[in-house]
Specification:
The chain is mainly alpha-helical. Helix content is 55%, strand content 6%. Among the domains are: 90 residues, no CATH class; 127 residues, no CATH class. The strands form four sheets. Strands 3-4-5 form a three-stranded antiparallel beta sheet. A two-stranded antiparallel sheet has the order 1-2. A hairpin with a 2-residue loop joins strand 6 and strand 7. The longest helix is centred in the C-terminal third of the chain and has 23 residues. The chain is globular and about 50 Å long.
Amino acid sequence: MAESAIVSRHLRALWALPGTELGVVGWPATRRERAFASWHYWWQAHLIDCAVDAANRAPTPVRRRRIAAIARAHRLRNVTGWTNDYYDDMAWLAIALERAERTQDIDVRGGLIALEKELYGAWDPARGGGVPWRVDSDYFNAPANGPAAIALLRLGRHVRAQEMADWIDATLLDKESGLILDGIHLPSGEIERPAFTYCQGVVLGLEAELAVHTGEERHSERVHRLLIAVEEQMTTGGVINGGGGGDGGLFNGILARYLAVVALMLPGEDREQVADRRNAAAIVRASATAAWANRLEVEGEPLFGHDWSKPTQLPGGRSGAGHFTAGGSVTSSRVPERDMSVQLSGWLLMEAAYQVSAAGL
């Protein structure tokens, strides 16, 4: 039902071109949004990722064609091809396209080659390592380095992915809270101290996958330490805290996705590792239960809230749409629930809950 709601409310052909589908970023949509004047590259990457989840859960020709149509539309709407100036954006797309190719045999090899080249080449040893947030920026942050490392790991760049994980742990781990901070300005060393749910998510997923690939204990230990911090500081009653609308609408869904990765992939049968897998799955299940209980039903399909622990608000209309800031982020709509990011988080969460439940966790 989460999938169906996105398909019916948000998906439409790009500029009436056959064989394309892209997500309209608001519902109810403004004329500008329906025309894809606003389209938000990284939201569409997560739309592809969710479409891959659905095709893996219940394979059909329609679902497989949908992945290919969204990927095609993404490349066309981006105008310049697959890449842009933001390494976090490109990392999210690389993750989605790699999964589409590996699990559904979608031909996106050209995109993956272009994105891998950009992400691998962005590593900056002259400043002590790290990938900047965008081209020519002095800001090196977890939302770029975490997903870039996951993408490179899955593309076979294991050494670089491990270097990136070690850089994040050495540079962005807050020793007091145990959480991953947002980023650092280099070479000044000034830290931006907000800790967001999605930063924790990508590091949890990265370290869990590195634990599988390397067998080195430090990766499992980092998962354990960070999972405790997330449980204590980023959940309420076992439910992941909401991140608002706009770009923040995706934050809690991303944490749910990578908690599911921990639950399914973290290796080891010691008591601590078994408990970590169980606890990660429990947060996903509790969040999904709360989000479903607090949803609205609109024409028979769910509308999810930006805070899964509270009742969903119905958007009143097209007014109050979010917009780009000078810093490159997207603000929330007046009612966050009108943002596709919030609804994608709901779908992300439901797919994550399906995966842990299907595995008996």
